[in-house]
Specification:
8-stranded parallel β-barrel, Glucose Oxidase, domain 1, globular, alpha/beta, homodimer, 8-stranded mixed sheet, 569 residues
Chain lengths: 569, 569
């Protein structure tokens, strides 16, 4: 229509909805009309629905049902398409989720681990099938039961992340491998109107590639903890955590350094000269250790099996587990969300941040040496006090200097902070002030909402639905920014941050960074960028342009009104 | 000196320090000089130190060592003096702590459960002896070991909550049973200067009596959850929580109603016509249930003991426990601090707040009927949205109307809210606005700090010490208000609350309400009252007057300077 001169570019941009883009980008089931049938090998075949859950991440996928993450990885590496089915997922399932074509969980809500991680990875995800349908997942027997239908491990199912429905068998799906050229053209127009730039939450070279194809101008959040969970690394990470003293801890950190340096090297190499914001390690340490209850259960089961008459080897094993249990109990926290994690780890164990900084700058120098242009932005998580930031920045700057003088290569880098603790927003001026103050802010709106609203994302699912249904809240704060509450803190932080350091770069890297309403709010706050999962980038680019165009239209209207008033006088 | 005309009243008030009052009010060891000796039966006896911990609550106490809370209650009811010694305390130890003369825990920090509850109760408390000394508590063997010295259950020890030291044997202590008349006189002078009134955190008629003797003008925080933990009530509370449906739940609530109504009746009767702020039930429900790990352990131990060959009765017991376990796991939360508690319980289960409101107004009407003057102020905890408050207030007002029309007695009452979720502070204007808006605010500074700083009080002890030592923070936010961060939220809430509802009553009822620096800050914010534990009331009265006098002096100085400037011109 623009080509035909029927509408102008601005009208074209305003006419597309984010939902349009969502529908274009994600794979979907190739329905034969009516939607109860598909066409396979020229035959019209009716489909059989076996369950339904909450549509937690869009897209359709088909594959063999597997109930275990390690097995998913193993089979996927042989080229199999796998749908990972679990009761719920934890950080230890991340590699399985990544290897899968899609994820189904029996429990959880739209903000559960499975939902959030699957959206980030762009995997379709359906959660809470237990409450939403008669489908039951039996992990012990390794079957899915739905009335009389039984799906065994290895059987094919097809999931539709748009509707939340799960079908028996392998239905045909269709997807676009890249942005359609028409959409690409419109988004390129859109970018010329935008004030708010779009970055990606991307943790790997593959994520980077996809993100840049979709138009991200950089990475706003590269998480590093995934680098510790990978096979071969978790045991070393565990030994590091369980180390009795600093010396021992450093010896394991030195091993982890090798892994991380290589990871960062590959990430920087794939950065195409764009800035990469790297978040230092964030989660509480016990996420890397076995759970207390699992350990106790294992120990009892050992004793039960042996009728309490253990062999010498078994006794030794039991003692090892007991020792581990003591450490797990020591590290356990009542409210891990509010405990020792983020920069608190870095304050208590500076050797961890030292290792990470060394890995970042060594990799960056190695890249520069090979002719790649590298711009790391080191981001400190969970800062609440300017003093925390300053202490950690001191370590980062020192390590950078050491690497630069050793390699003779100077890398352009920034050090900034997440704004995710309410106190950080309230004292943003202090955190940004001075030469050594934060050079950028990134609102971690997931955690900022958790704390500002006192909503644990892991637990709040239980009442958020009730709150939405009963109009206690208008929208889910983990999907769209709570402007009246959390938004006020953000506004304050922007004001104080810019007063203390004019021109400080400010962005957002929470889940809400891909939500159109939140993007409009960020535009109004005057942020520099939003960062979201690669698969939401086209939507974010559109929303950013729409926010700018809307604002321009409102300004024009106001000016016209004022001019009219003037004329009247 | 005032009597002799050497100094005036104001000078007298400013000359006393809070430490002076602390030292006067709490019992202490009657040392014989030097402090390594005491005098018993006219004999000078050297004392033997067996351990040292953090001085978590002041005062000295002597008694028999008991390692179990139920046993402490049993022995104390026979007139024994008991020192309760635990690894840590939980809400289920509260009755034991109350029955004891003092509490010692092997772990924990100055903000652990033991420390906070003991301070509230005015019991001396020493925590963290494990890290601070060679003393070891062995709960299995029921002994305390300190080098070669072994203290068995039933042996006497003496604890000094001022120094954190623990001594072998029964040392003489001395204490004042009421305010010395000189101090009383000075505090009465002090009250005439104060703007900030002093209320008490008091949960029982005994607490009320002590609080009013010490000069509290009302109760700022009467917690109701203790009313559910008492013997004979906890099993009913548990049945209520585990009920399968609303009808069943209400049947157990009806039993709890009888208990609560009687509790409130006694509390109102002892109120002497002063306002009593009652906080509706606050903690997450799983605090009332057995812990998951304990249940699993019990079940395994049953099976182990029977070599996995259980009798029919044992099988039944196991099944019951298994069923309970499923519910406990359902209710369990990752971060209970940010989960389903406070007003969220009231929104999800309105029948709970309905029962509590009915108990409050029925008791109040019964009191009024007997000629007592009653002023309940019903306080809704954990509000974050005005819509939450309005929905709950609707229930409270309806129940009040019902009771009033049934009894023909109208009770003067208010409905207000805690401000403890950052979002509540940020949207205080909305929460206070309108006829049905909150009639008073009470800053719950414990939780407000937990969320604003992302410090779980249960976990933060592990790093707060490190932060203080390394000057990351100037002071412990759970002792003295973090003015630069949390204080900003408080200031905002006061401003918005007063704009929306001029004259709205605003107070504070966190631990910090008894801290002189925090009291001065509250005075500057223009709050109406601070509420603190009964034993801190004299200190709070002094601090409140000192804040007013300091401010007056500063104002006078400024005026003088301005007058001088004027003269110069």
């Amino acid at each position: 229509m623009v080509g035909e001169g029927l509408i102008d570019k601005e009208a074209a941009i305003l006419r597309i909805t984010p939902g349009d883009i969502e529908n274009i980008l994600f794979p979907r089931i190739s329905w034969h009309t009516p939607q109860k049938n598909v066409e396979i090998d020229s035959k019209i075949i009716p489909v059989e629905t076996i369950g339904k859950g909450l549509a937690a991440s869009p897209g359709a996928a088909t594959g063999k049902v597997i109930f275990d993450s390690d097995e998913t990885v193993a089979l996927a590496s042989e080229g199999e398409s796998i749908i990972l089915v679990r009761h719920e997922t934890t950080p230890e399932d991340v590699h399985g989720m990544y290897a899968s074509r899609g994820v189904v969980t029996a429990t959880g809500g739209l903000t559960s681990h499975a939902a959030v991680v699957a959206r980030q990875m762009g995997r379709p995800c359906i959660v809470d099938t237990d409450s939403q349908s008669i489908m039951r997942v039996d992990l012990k027997k390794k079957i899915i039961r739905s009335g009389d239908v039984i799906i065994r491990e290895g059987d094919f199912i097809t999931m539709d992340g748009f509707s939340g429905k799960i079908y028996k068998g392998e239905l045909p799906t269709e997807k676009l491998s890249e942005l359609p050229s028409e959409l690409s053209k419109i988004l390129n127009w859109a970018d010329t109107y935008s004030k708010l730039e779009v970055r990606a939450n991307a943790d790997s070279p593959a994520d980077n590639k996809r993100a840049f194809e979709y138009g991200a101008i950089g990475v706003g959040l590269c998480r590093t903890e995934h680098m510790f969970f990978d096979e071969g690394r978790l045991p070393i990470m565990q030994k590091m955590i369980l180390a009795d003293n600093k010396e021992e801890r450093i010896s394991f950190l030195n091993i982890l350094f090798e892994f991380q340096e290589e990871d960062f090297y590959e990430i920087f190499k794939s950065a195409e000269g764009k800035p990469i914001t790297i978040r230092l390690i964030d989660p509480p340490l016990h996420e890397f250790l076995p759970k207390e209850l699992d350990l106790v259960t294992e120990m009892f089961e050992m004793r039960l099996e042996a009728n309490d008459e253990l062999s010498e080897d078994q006794q030794k094993e039991l003692q090892t587990k007991e020792k581990l249990l003591v450490r797990v109990q020591e590290i356990n926290e009542m409210n891990p969300m509010l405990g020792i994690r983020g920069c608190r780890l870095a304050i208590l164990f500076p050797e961890i941040v030292e290792m990470q900084a060394k890995a970042i700058f060594t990799a960056a120098a190695r890249c520069e040496n090979k002719g790649y242009d590298v711009h790391p932005e080191v981001m400190v998580p969970l800062v609440g006090f300017d003093t925390e930031f300053l202490e950690i920045r001191k370590v980062i700057d020192r390590v950078a200097e050491e690497v630069f003088s050793e390699t003779g290569i100077i890398v352009d880098y920034l050090v900034g902070t997440m704004i995710e603790v309410p106190r950080a927003a309230l004292t943003a001026g202090e955190i940004a002030s001075g030469d050594k103050g934060a050079e950028f802010f990134s609102f971690g709106t997931n955690d900022l909402h958790q704390m500002t609203l006192a909503f644990s994302r892991d637990d709040a699912g239980k009442f958020i639905a009730h709150y939405l249904e009963n109009k206690i809240m208008d929208s889910d704060p983990f999907e769209t920014i709570d402007q009246a509450g959390t938004g006020k803190l953000m506004q304050l932080a922007v004001k104080e941050g810019r007063e203390a350091k004019p021109g400080i770069k400010i962005g957002i890297c929470g889940e809400q960074g891909g939500d159109p309403a939140s993007i409009e709010f960020c535009h109004k706050l005057g942020l520099d960028y939003v960062s979201c999962s690669p698969f939401r980038i086209p939507i974010a680019r559109l929303a950013s342009a729409q926010a700018a165009l809307k604002e321009a239209a409102e300004t024009a209207l106001k000016e016209a009104e004022q001019a009219a008033l003037k004329d009247e006088n």
